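Training component of the fellowship. As part of building independent skills, the fellow (R.M.) carried out the full modelling exercise for a liganded target. The chosen ligand was pyridoxal-5'-phosphate. The inputs are recorded below so that the supervisory panel can assess the work.
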Amino acid sequence: MKVPFFDLKRQYNTLKDDVWQSIQEVMENTAFSGGPFVQKLEQELADFNETQFAVGVNNGTNAIQLALLALGIGPGDEVIIPANTFIATAWGVSYVGATPVFADCDPHTWNIDPAEAESKITPQTKAIMGVHLYGQPFNVKALKQICDKHNLHLLEDNAQAMGATYEGKRVGQFGTMSTTSFYPGKNLGAYGEGGAVFGQFKEHGETIQMLKNHGSKERYHHEVLGFNMRMEGLQAAVLSVKLPHLINWNNRRREIAQAYHEAGNPKLQFQRPEPGAESVYHLAVVIPSDKKAFLAHLDAEGVGYAFHYPIPCHLQQAYAHLGHKVGDFPHSEYLASNCVSLPMFPEMTDEELSRVVEVLKKF
Ligand SMILES: Cc1ncc(COP(=O)(O)O)c(C=O)c1O
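Fellow's submitted model of the complex:
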């Protein structure tokens, strides 16, 4: 039996009727760009994350850009981010003209190491943006303390952890603002591109609404240099159908992750949770004792896998001008060289799960 790394089609099959009905409603209302379906979703998202606002936008990368712009962060400023994240975290910082300053991860939690982050603070630093990597909340308490001490904004890149909790509260509500992505493969994925910005200060939400809509509050009156970063009505309608299922889907992801842990193979290192953190396992990443042998084993047994992410941000060619070299962030580099992502999606069958567990045990 082959087990795929991921299969989006299965979820679509379970939602087909509701999704098509919602799509038809958008069509009937010709509410294609922004509009009532986006507004409805924004309220549902703000309620979900217990924030003062949520603004739906065109993707998770631009969500980061808009959050930083709303805080007035720009050229000459620095934002501290983990070296081991999807590159988009860094793009958001670069798009506003600020400099991403990388910090290494903790070797066990694989999330940004608070002490490392603090050591990177300079007079130019304006914010620390943590990433709840693979669905696992970062050390919110420690980063918040550091930000408060140095008068910095805490931001959360929550693209991978919608629904995860830290000390009983959903992540995405701890920072001055947080952002998420609705890329199709995310725990809450659109049928196309999408993203959102969340926050606790309504004025930030108003600024972002204006920025995403050509810098305009009133049609054809443009107060500032704006963008077309609106969310599509179709994506909002699909997301409103999917959001009520997110908790169940995340619970199934937790079951899968737990079964992988309980396979109990000491040759596999798992991501260690922060105290008080409950992951939603966007990904099930392991570090095997011998990557080459492990991949050969998965290939032979027909189990799919992927790598998240094989090159850390500081060693990407796009950031060569920052002058980093191999060895600058050893824990991030080790993770990049050795990480293997196992099959993880809520629609995995019990049979498939048992099969992967058996394969993990046999390694
Ligand atoms: C950590 C992280 N940040 C940002 C993004 C960017 O989101 P998008 O692809 O919607 O632009 C993603 C996902 O792609 C991500 O995983």
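The panel noted the following from the submitted structure. The pocket of pyridoxal-5'-phosphate is lined by residues 59-61, 85-86, 88-89, 131, 157, 159-160, 181, 183, 195 (CB under 6 Å). The two ends are 17 Å apart (CA to CA).
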